[in-house]
Every structure is written in C-alpha cells, then in structure tokens.
Amino acid sequence: MSPLREPTVVGVPNFNASEDAATLRAAMKGLGTDEEAIIAILTTRSNAQRQAISQAFTHEYGRDIIEDLKSELGGHFEDVIVALMMPPAEYLCRELHHCMEGLGTEEEVLVEILCTRTKPEIADIVDTYERLYNRPLAEHMCSETSGDFRRLLTLIVTSVRKGARDEEAGVDPARAAEAAQQLYDAGEAKWGTDEEIFNKILAHESFAQLRLIFEEYKNLSGRTIEQAIKAEIDGELKDALSAIVECVENAAAWFAQRLRTAMQGAGTEDKTLVRIITSRAEIDLAAIKREYERLYDKTLESDISQGETSGDYKRALVALLGPA
Question: Is the confidence at residue 237, as pLDDT, over 50?
Fold first, then answer.
C-alpha cells in the first residue's frame, strides 16, 4: 500500500462541532427528518470531526447522536450514517464480529478487513475488538475458521504484537531475496506446497517489504507471486493470500474489484458497498474511483447510481465519492 493517501473526505476548515450538533438536532427534531442536512454535514466531516460532533451533541442535549439517528433513519441509509459516526476501528470490529456471529462465517469479510490493512491498522483493530467484546479477536476467529486459512488470519492478528510488518522500519533487500527463495522452495520448486511458509512470510512482513520480496520472486522464478499462488494453492487460503498480494501491489484496484462484484449479479451486496465506501473514504477512495474507471470503463458513481441503490442511501454514497 502506498503511503500516499487519496481520500475523498478530508473534513472541513473552520469546523464548529456545536454548530453542527445544533443543525443535526434540528434536522431530527419534531415532525419529519431533514435527510439532506444530515447527508450534507456527515459526508463532508472527517471521522475525527464527527466524533467531536457526537461529544458536543451529548454535552448540549444529553442525548446519544447514534441512537437519535437510528430512530430517525432506516434501511441502508441508516447503515451508511451509523458507519460514518463510529470510530473506524470500532466500525470494522463490529463488522468482523457480525460476520462471525450466527450461522456460518462470511470468510470474504474476514479477508476484506484483515488481509488489506497495514500493521498499525490491524493493531488498532485487535485492541479495539478485545475492548468491545471482551474476548481476543484471534480466539473468536479460531472458533469460526479452520485449516491453513485459520492459521494465516491468526498469524496476521497475533504478529502485530511482535512488531511484525512494521511499515516504518524501512526495507531490507537481503532479507527480501532470502524470503523470495523460501517462497520459491516452498511452492514451485517442490512437489506439493508448504503453505506454512507462504502464511508466515505474507502475514509477518510489512507491505513495503513484501513489495520487494515479490520483485525478487519474479526475478528468481520468472513468474509473479500471484501466478504461483493461483497455481499452487486453492480455496479460502488462495483468496486470502491473493488479497494480500494485490493490496501490496495496488490496494485501490483490489477494492474496486470488490465493489464491482458487490454490484454485479442478482441483488447488490449492500453491506460490502457501505463498508468499503465508508471505511476507505478518508484513506484511498479517490484512487479506488480512478482504478474502477480504468478497469471497467465506467465511473463508480454511475454504477452506484444506475444500480439498485436509491433515495437518500444513494445520495449519501455518492456524496462520499466526492466530485467526479
């Protein structure tokens, strides 16, 4: 992941939390709700500004803004607004928890959240999860997943404690060449694949270091690491490892593909649409929009607008996409 941020939402200058809180209170008070005012404020403020609005709202009116919004709004529009009002790590933890509760686990949500984040982001999620749910994320995941897929995810969330995949530490070319050789020996060079080696390297190293490892791998093998993973590994583990590789190389393109899949076929996967657009708006949504257009020759906005989203839900998503 490139350290360059390409957000569509950056917050507003001359921000005044009390004023925004008063406008939002007026938008929800009395008969009817002023959805336009809610969209105008909450899709343009940064998450830090929204947290300040939330505090001001409680301070001035003795009320919980999220509870008030939930009682006034509904459907997927409510999902977008509530996602915006939660601190980012709390929101992602809620999504992780939700995808593991109940019958069956939505493995692709685990991949989307855990295989695409940098180490500092994962560390934040791990701490927040335990605070919110009173159990470690690794333990909850272990009970809901299995095999090599479980081992990879567990390594991702436990290795942050050891300072692994440290984005700030810089890169080490000699270690990269060594790791590339280990990957080659564990996959293409032998009969059968040693998934453990793939897991260990891809879960532990920083994205910057992995970028170097993958270059070395191509020099060594003549094939890209992606080609090797697709040829050597299958099932959920293949999806998870591929997500890491693609995010190292071009995270925005990976998220663009995920959005496209969510909107294709019968029925829109609204949860995915909401989660990606709200959680990437302050990170790289501008880059995701660009990659989407490059890959599909259509703008993300046109696909969202022509798809199955409508009304305030559509207006809120489009507002988060920012100017075309």
Answer: yes
Task: Enter the tokens of residue 210.
Answer: 């992995």
CA distances from 285 to 29, 275, 276, 324 (A): 33, 12, 9, 12
Report d(CA 73, CA 214) in Å as an integer.
47
Classify each residue of 1-10 as buried b or exposed e, where b means 16 or more C-beta atoms within 10 Å of its C-beta: beeeeebbbe
For 208, the token pair is: 């910057």
pLDDT digit string, tens, across residues 158-181: 987 655 455 656 799 999 999 999
Report the candidate in 175, 192, 172, 194 with the shortest Cα–Cα distance to residue 183. Answer: 194
CB atoms within 10 A of CB 149: 22
Q: Is the alpha carbon torsion for 95, 99, 256, 308 positive or negative?
A: negative
Q: Give the separation between CA 275 and CA 95, rounded to whole angstroms.
A: 8
Distance CA 88, CA 282 (A): 10
Residue 249, Ramachandran bin (φ over 0: left; ψ between -120 and 50: alpha; else beta): alpha
DSSP state for residue 106 in the 8-state scheme: -
Mean pLDDT value of segment 95-105: 90
Q: Which DSSP string do the residues of 181-219 spell out, in sequence order?
A: HHHHHHTTTSSS--HHHHHHHHHHS-HHHHHHHHHHHHH
187-194 contacts at long range (C-beta below 8 A, 24 or more positions apart) = 187/228, 187/229, 187/232, 188/221, 188/223, 188/228, 188/231, 188/232, 193/232, 193/233
Rounded CA gap, 15 and 47, in Å? 12
- Torsion (CA) 255, 279, 160, 186 in degrees, nearest 10: -10
Q: Helix count (H) and strand count (E) of the chain?
A: 19, 0
User: Which of these, 147, 89, 154, 148, lies nearest to 123 by C-alpha position?
Assistant: 89
Residue position matching structure tokens 């697709």: 230
pTM: 0.94
Convert the pLDDT of each residue in 197-231 to its tens digit. 999 999 999 999 999 999 999 999 999 999 999 99
